[in-house]
Amino acid sequence: MNSGLKKGLAIKSVDNVATVLDDVSCGDRILVKFADSASVLTIESRENIPFGFKVALKDIQKGEYVIKYGEVIGRATEFIGEGRLVHVHNVEGLRGRGDLGGEKI
Amino acid sequence: MTFLGYERPDGSVGVRNYVLIIPGGIISDSICNFVNGCKTIVTADSGSGRSKRDRETIARTLVGLGMNPNVASVIVHGRGLGSGYPELNVNRLADDIAKTGKRVEVLDGSNTSTLELIVKGINLAREMVQEASRLRRREYDDGNLCVGVKCGASDTTSGIVGNPVVGYVFDKLVSKGGTALFGENTEIIGAEHILAKRAVNKQVAEAILEVARETEERAKAIGEDIRTINPVPSNIAGGITTLEEKSLGAIAKSGSMPIQGVLKYGERPKGRGLYFVDNWMSMLSIFLGYAAAGAQIVLFQLGGGGLVGDTILYSSGGVVAPLLWLTANPKTYRRFGEEIDFYSGTVIEGKETIQEAGERLYNLILDVASGTMTKTETLTHTDPNQIYTLDPML
Fold first, then answer.
1. How far is B19 from chain A (nearest CA, A)?
2. Which of B60, B79, B155, B182 has the fewest CB atoms in 10 Å of its CB?
3. Cα end-to-end span (Å), chain B
4. Nearest-CA neighbor of B388 among B39, B24, B43?
5. Chain B CB within 8 Å of residue A66 CB
6. What domains are there in chain A, each with its CATH number?
7. B156/A19 touch (CB, cutoff 8 Å), yes or no
8. Is A91 in CB contact (< 8 Å) with chain B?
9. C-alpha dist (Å) from residue B223 to A68, A72, B186, B218, B226
10. What value of ipTM does the predicted structure carry?
11. Sheet of A5-10, strands arranged across
């Protein structure tokens, strides 16, 4: 096994993010398995991503939904390139948002 | 599969054999300090100044705890019950518990001092624990078990491994004719449509959606961005980004069986199978509610990746229901291993499948049901309980 290859897990084939199961450094290659199929994907990380955090499996445009478990978990607040960390700095949740004063999301 | 338990007069089977003293307070504490084998509830909420709905919740919780199969017999006394509200009348509570056929004694303080009542209670409790100790464990089917679960300090290992392992156990327990309880109303927001599809009928589906709707409305009504409340900071530090992501991971602990109904906090299910409980996530509250609903064992599925500078607290929140700490996070297990009863990070390490870890957990639950102590049970420390009330205090 390639010692430089880090582990990642995506739940459904339609997901555009995966959870990394190692501490990942910028430039590391991540072998992503899918829980619902035998397919795998290798992507290169573009920044440090700690164990348990999410990596973008493809480019995600600003305003595009972020998909995990085959479901919408939020919306990108900026462009997120493949291999970047996906977290609260570039994704917003859409539910229970009392701060929006009834504004339709 | 079977476990060794204590049969009660109503046909239910206990995994422990306690004498319960309710409600909490100086008398019940004093009895528990002096007498082996007693349990009490540690709560400051007497019901005083509470709405009728909340008083009913308190009464339901106390009665349910007394009815729990892990309780051999019960002492009820009046002190600490708010100001004579009919819902919390001592005799009403005692009569409701006595419907199970188990022994219930009322400790009457009307013509005595507090200290004299303590002595009376101690003598009564000594006699009752000795009587309870004459009962022997016998072999019973696993379908007699009821298990409740909470996931907490969740991180991304919870949703992808820890909760699915519990889900496997729940599926197996329900298929054997057992009962499984899950809940946490804020943490189905964003995943309620998936749960609703698993409801046994339209009415239950609508009840699930209504819980999510009501909870979300409460969040919106206070005008805050829910992201500053839930996911909680330790979730975010553990890699969970949004409430939707947390919810989708959280519901994995319910497995895949049909949902038979939506229960109120502390409400006993009418049949067996999988139930959703409309409860609040706090570990000081949720395990008490499950025990009141009849759970003999409760599970805390811990993420822990986002716990910074903290230790995990033991929780005796189930009062009479032993608690098992579980985690799927290898880092959490390395840090808190001495406090964890079960580790499923083997799945993340590629050494086990979710099914294999689930089988291991199922066997551990049967072992604990037969009398093996959990790590929490080895301590005498008792955490406070917080009954889940909804209305303002007046």
1. 43
2. B79
3. 50
4. B43
5. yes
6. 5-100 (2.30.130.110)
7. yes
8. yes
9. 28, 23, 16, 9, 9
10. 0.92
11. A40-44, A29-34, A5-10, A17-20, A54-56, A85-86
